[in-house]
Amino acid sequence: MSTGTPKQDPRRTQIPEAVDVALDNGLQLLVVPVPGNPYLAAHLELPAGSLGDPAEEEGLAAFTAQLLRHGTRRRSEAELSEAIDGLGARLSTATYLDHVDVGGDVTTLDPKNGELLLAAMAEIVREPTFPEAEIAKVRALREGGIRRLADQNDQVAARAFEQATLQGQLAGRPVSGSVASLRRIDRPAIEGFWQRHYLPQGARLGIAGDITVEQAVALATRTFGSWTGTPEPLPDSPLPPPTAGRRLLLVDKKDPSLSQVHFRIGAIAPVRTDSMELYPYRLAAHILGGDFSARLNQRLRVREGLTYGARFSYRPTTNLPGTAGLVTYVELDLLARALQCSLEELHRFRDEGPQEQELADARDKLVLSFPFRFETPTGTLDQISWLRREGLPRDFLARYQERLDSVTFAAVQDMAAHGFPAGEDCVLVAVGNKEQARALAETFPGTSVEVLSLADLGLC
Description:
The protein is an alpha+beta fold.
């Protein structure tokens, strides 16, 4: 008779316990204790994303966030960097559509490090000074970054695809803004955005590591407890209707040395993260274009030799519109053939659906890779923070593998038949030279090709 501890089912991940506490000032605290791990991860999510960018000042949210580390009432940018580097810590900002993430991590072999990291986070969020010299420096860096995007054809394709697919929606504007919009942003605009959006009500501070809930509450109260105020709400970006009809766009690089065309074929993502349709969709998407063995890559790379890689990328969300589509690149003279093969494979997937062995393989890959999301305190905090931000049920992560395992073959077949773009209702974006317009028109007879310049995308 065995008396040992039962082995954990590898198909079921034990999700760390997370505790939510509301501080008196309205700041939400999320604590994920990870005993014995000498490491602390902290993320402050503020409702200060790019949805709040005023018209003609796109990129303001990201510009403001990047400036946080460039000087406070207590320290200069150099002094802040020296202090953070001296801890062996990381502290950075990232801007998304609906929030800004001020995040960092540090080892806690010295117990003081955690408090010093949180104090630095509070300082840059609550006391930035936005010096004119630093604004000029960051403007130059951001403008240079946008101009460099013009040389990254995959990024150009992504930018054009998002704008075309989400046309008319705030979510379709680039978070980084444009060269022109950056030049319109001045110090009063930056300071005004910070004053309106960098306030505790609606913000969430996540802490994960070797810390108790009581210790985390005390730490958060010391560093953020005196912070007060309610931010201006971000505008909504409604979920648009499904993509209807076909739209073809060619971004003309005007580059005689260009050797490859990047293209995307896709549409509005047909599922939301709070829908049970998410599970058959993820399985079907993996079969179609999730890895090397997926349908698209096998057809376009392995059998046809047209590309080094083809994938199906998707971004479903709960509160914001998302997109989904095929992503690949080919040599200039292979564009028409690659488009035809892509459409044939998309149609075949819709018409025939997956094979049962493909579903079994995809299910195993998604279920058995899930635990890797929780290998570190940072990864764990990212997952649980995402759960809270999306407004999903508390048991979503704990039941994720179970729900993937319970998806029927019929449900995945039905999703394959109705959930993926083919050629009739889609947006197609290609990044090449205007000469490729002919290949697009021949592949899609009867559909006009819109030619865009890099300036139309705000990249120059």
